[in-house]
């Protein structure tokens, strides 16, 4: 079958793609920005990549007419305050485009929406489902709650809370019930729903066998990690206060924290699980999902992470929009140093950030990240998905990878921290030298004052970082 996969650069899409290829399908990957889509070479002969922005009707003409089915795996929960209207318009545009094709089925991954009073996020998910259901194809909707897997937002938030806080004073919504599901089971449901007539024009709730409160999930996580944790819930935390609490303790962005807090006040428990029998799937328990996630982390086999989605930052951008580093009207700090071994130099560059740190002045880097968090930025807590591999679009602390080529010896980063301007950091191998360039394009007087205020720190931080990269 020929399948259209939207959201191919997202957390779910990256994991579903190899499964569809293994089943023998030809996959059309619809991505907003080709620059940040780097599928493994083993998959490339069975995929076609098209530019697809569901809010840009011109790009919808890139969808082949002869597709058999399509996956709708996109949403913009944290990328805009107006995400509800954006999601609805995206669904309408998608529906109209698919109506022109030969597609017989659309598969949509939504959220469990069984409560009468829904959060704005879950209400938006339901609106999208209603719009997609108006198409002249069969819609199969899978509704999931908390998804547990290496790199998932839910897993990383729980991990941050449990591993950082021995004692937690938490909001009362930690007593809300939910039904978590492992990422492997989500992918199984998505792949087995394809071309299954029994799922046409229906919606199903998917979840694991355990119904737990968020508090129980945290305590069971602590048990798996061999940690003793104490959790106390109080009724005085407002949603705004709860959002700030989640934002400062975990690696989530503030907008995502707000959406999550509002959603966590709503029970997300499956109505029934008839789809388990229909597709012959027996979901694994919560603790088993946790154990599998940590196995992937320990062996550096994290296929995708929510942090690499653009919505994990503070900007809405296409990587290609910033890949040409400007010079006019910019402040530039350019340094060059000779290295003795090209391969070793590149490996050190490719391991920068995350747990490795920035080779010099890590305390100052952490302080800059803390200040960024105070102003609503992403800070350093996103880290990096893998310790020694980088791809365009990846998050790297408070940077975004724009370009990464070991063959060329070039790594280009764009700052997602809160700044009065735009900033780039580039590492480039030329002959026997490593050229390190920091570029800042200021906005107004505040931008110029900012550059001169940090210039003294650049003098020794960038100098010694370059020295460590070329040892």
Keywords summarizing the entry:
471 residues, 14 helices, alpha/beta, 19 strands, 7-stranded parallel beta sheet
Helix and strand arrangement:
Blueprint: E1 2-6, H1 11-22, E2 26-31, E3 47-51, H2 57-60, E4 69-72, H3 83-99, E5 105-111, H4 120-132, E6 138-144, E7 147-148, H5 153-164, E8 167-171, E9 177-178, E10 181-182, H6 183-193, E11 202-206, E12 212-213, H7 214-225, E13 230-234, H8 239-249, H9 254-264, H10 274-279, H11 286-298, E14 331-338, H12 342-350, H13 362-374, E15 395-396, E16 399-405, E17 410-415, E18 421-430, E19 433-442, H14 444-469
Parallel strand pairs: 1-2, 1-4, 2-3, 4-5, 5-6, 6-11, 7-10, 8-13
Antiparallel strand pairs: 9-12, 14-19, 15-16, 16-17, 17-18, 18-19
Number of strands: 19
Quote the beta fraction. Answer: 15-25%
Q: Helix/strand/pairing class, anyone?
A: alpha/beta
Oligomeric composition of the shown chains: single chain
Molecular shape: globular
Indicate the mean pLDDT.
Answer: 85
Helix percent reads 25-40%
The whole-angstrom Rg is: 23 Å
The largest beta-sheet arranges its strands as 3-2-1-4-5-6-11
Largest sheet: 7 strands, parallel
Q: How many helices does DSSP assign?
A: 14
Task: Indicate the low-confidence ranges by residue numbers.
Answer: none
Calculate the terminal CA-CA distance, rounded to whole Å: 52 Å
Structure description:
- The protein is an alpha/beta fold and 471 residues long.
- It has 14 helices and 19 strands.
- The chain has helices spanning 11-22, 57-60, 83-99, 120-132, 153-164, 183-193, 214-225, 239-249, 254-264, 274-279, 286-298, 342-350, 362-374, 444-469; strands at residues 2-6, 26-31, 47-51, 69-72, 105-111, 138-144, 147-148, 167-171, 177-178, 181-182, 202-206, 212-213, 230-234, 331-338, 395-396, 399-405, 410-415, 421-430, 433-442.
- The strands form 5 sheets. The protein has a 7-stranded parallel beta sheet with strand order 3-2-1-4-5-6-11, sandwiched between helices. A 6-stranded antiparallel beta sheet has the order 14-19-18-17-16-15, covered by helices on one side.
- β1, α1 (11-22) and β2 form a beta-alpha-beta unit.
- α1 (11-22) crosses α6 and α7 packs across α11 (286-298).
- The longest helix is centred in the last third of the chain and has 26 residues, at 444-469.
- The mean pLDDT is 85.
């Amino acid at each position: 079958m020929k399948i259209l996969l939207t959201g191919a650069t997202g957390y779910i899409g990256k994991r579903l793609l190899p499964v569809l290829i293994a089943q023998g399908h030809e996959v059309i990957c619809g991505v907003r920005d080709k620059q940040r889509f780097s599928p493994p070479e083993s998959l490339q002969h069975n995929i076609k990549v098209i530019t697809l922005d569901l809010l840009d009707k011109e790009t919808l003409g890139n969808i082949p007419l002869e597709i058999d089915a399509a996956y709708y795996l996109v949403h913009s929960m944290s990328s805009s305050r107006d995400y509800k209207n954006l999601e609805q318009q995206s669904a309408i545009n998608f529906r109209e485009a698919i109506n022109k094709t030969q597609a017989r089925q659309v598969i949509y991954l939504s959220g469990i929406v069984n409560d009468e009073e829904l959060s704005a996020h879950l209400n938006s998910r339901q609106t999208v489902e209603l719009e997609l259901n108006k198409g002249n194809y069969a819609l199969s909707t899978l509704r999931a709650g908390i998804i547990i897997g290496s790199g998932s937002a839910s897993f990383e938030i729980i991990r941050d809370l449990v591993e950082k806080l021995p004692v937690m004073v938490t909001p009362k919504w930690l007593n809300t019930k939910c039904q978590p599901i492992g990422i492997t089971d989500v992918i199984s449901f998505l792949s087995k729903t394809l071309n299954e007539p029994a799922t046409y024009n229906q919606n199903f709730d998917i979840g694991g066998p355990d119904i737990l409160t968020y508090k129980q999930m945290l305590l069971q996580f602590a048990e798996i990690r061999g940690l003793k944790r104490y959790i106390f819930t109080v009724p005085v935390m407002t949603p705004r206060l709860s959002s700030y609490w989640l934002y400062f303790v975990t690696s989530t962005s503030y907008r995502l924290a707000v959406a999550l807090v509002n959603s966590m006040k709503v029970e997300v428990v499956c109505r029934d699980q008839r789809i388990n029998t229909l597709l012959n799937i027996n979901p694994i328990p919560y603790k088993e999902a946790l154990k599998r996630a940590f196995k992937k982390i320990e062996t550096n086999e994290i296929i995708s992470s929510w942090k690499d989605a653009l919505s994990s930052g503070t900007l809405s951008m296409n990587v290609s929009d910033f890949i040409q580093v400007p010079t006019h009207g910019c402040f530039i700090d350019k340094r060059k140093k000779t290295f003795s071994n090209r391969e070793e130099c590149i490996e050190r560059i490719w391991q920068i950030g995350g747990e490795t740190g920035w080779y010099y002045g890590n305390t100052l880097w952490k302080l800059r990240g803390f200040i960024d968090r105070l102003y609503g930025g992403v800070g350093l807590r996103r880290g990096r998905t893998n310790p020694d591999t980088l791809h365009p679009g990846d998050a790297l602390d408070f940077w975004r990878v724009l370009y990464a080529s070991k063959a060329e010896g070039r790594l280009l980063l764009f700052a997602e921290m809160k700044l009065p301007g735009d900033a780039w950091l580039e590492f480039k191998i030329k002959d026997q030298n490593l050229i390190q360039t920091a570029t800042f394009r200021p906005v107004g007087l505040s931008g110029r004052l900012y550059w001169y205020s940090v210039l003294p720190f650049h003098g020794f931080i960038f100098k010694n970082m370059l020295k460590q990269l070329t040892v």
